[in-house]
Amino acid sequence: MPPLTNRLRAYPIRQVVQPFGSIAHCYMRDLSEGGAYLETDQPVELDQQLVLTLFSSMLEQSCAIKGIVVRRDKKGIGVRFEDLISKQKHVIRSLIESCCVPIPKPSE
C-alpha cells in the first residue's frame, strides 16, 4: 500500500475578492502555507491578485490572505499566498488539521 498524505476535503471559501468583485461557488483543496487550489468556474486570469477570507471553526477566527493566481485549468486556479503573518499561518494550520483526510500518495 502506498504511503499516506493529507488532502483537504472540499472546503467552502467564505469570500474571495478580486479586482472586479467576488467569486461565487468556490471550494478550496490542497491547502498549505504556500498556497491553495480553488475549484471555481469563474473567469480568473493568471497573475491576478486575490484576497481570500478563511475561517477556522476550530479557532473561531477568520483572516484575509492575499494571493496571486499562478495556475489555471478547466476546474479551477492555483493561488500562491503572499506575505503571511503568524495569525494567517495559524488559521491555515488549523484548517489543515481539522479538514484534511489521509489519502494514498500516487505510486512512483
Tell me about this structure.
With 108 residues, this protein is mainly β. It has a single domain, classed as Thrombin, subunit H (Beta Barrel), CATH 2.40.10. It contains 1 helix and 10 strands, in the order E-E-E-E-E-E-E-E-E-H-E. Strands 2-5-6-9-8-7-3-4 form an 8-stranded antiparallel β-sheet. It is globular. The protein starts with a strand and ends with a strand. The N terminus is likely disordered.
Descriptors for this entry?
single chain, 108 residues, Thrombin, subunit H, 8-stranded antiparallel β-sheet, two-stranded antiparallel ribbon, 1 helix, 10 strands, globular
Rg (CA only): 14 Å
Q: Spatial order of the strands in the main sheet?
A: 2-5-6-9-8-7-3-4
Q: Which architecture would the CATH scheme give at its second level?
A: Beta Barrel
User: What is the count of helical runs?
Assistant: 1
Task: Write down the overall geometry.
Answer: globular
Q: What structural class is derived from the secondary structure elements?
A: mainly beta
Number of domains: 1
Extended strand count? 10
- How is the CATH topology named? Thrombin, subunit H
Strand fraction:
over 45%
How do the SSEs run, as a string of H and E? EEEEEEEEEHE
Task: Summarize the model shown.
The protein has 108 residues and is mainly beta. It has one helix at 86-99, and strands at 4-8, 11-12, 15-18, 21-22, 27-32, 35-39, 49-56, 61-72, 76-81, 100-104. It has one helix and ten strands, in the order βββββββββαβ.
